[in-house]
Amino acid sequence: MEIKTVTAENLGQLELFLRDLGASKESFRYFESRPLAIIRNHLVTFLGWVNDKPVAYGHLDPEDGIVWLGIAVAQSHKGHGYGNLMMQALVEAARTSNIAEIYLTVDHENETAQYLYEKFGFKVEEDRENHKKYKLRIQ
Fold first, then answer.
1. Domain spans of the chain, in order of start
2. Given a cut of 90, is residue 105 above it in pLDDT?
3. Is the pTM of this model over 0.90?
4. DSSP character for 129?
5. According to the CATH classification, is domain 2-137 in 1.10.8.140?
6. Could you give the CA distance from residue 55 to residue 127 in angstroms, rounded to a whole number?
7. Helix, strand, coil percentages for the chain (3-state, nearest 5)
């Protein structure tokens, strides 16, 4: 998988990914309440490409003094290690940007994602009714 940066100038690539997300839309709801142009505020926004097709997405989004990590893999491409590769790129981007901590939330039923996050060292900070909030200390 080749990881490329998404910018405001190539939002069409992000639209293509979101259109082909499949059942993964159920757990990746970030853009349901935000315009695509929100990526202008991101520290990084990545798409993972396989055979000229975007199959994975990731971002680091600073909001209210917290850096949030978002990640998604198209349903048709799950199980090939693309989430792992995207997490590596995001954690490395946080490290090189001297970010001390990153956070994410995940639905309780998304056990595959929870396994991935815990594999990278994320720890549960809050366990709420429908989701968990994880934190990773980088520095």
1. 2-137
2. yes
3. yes
4. S
5. no
6. 29
7. 40, 35, 25
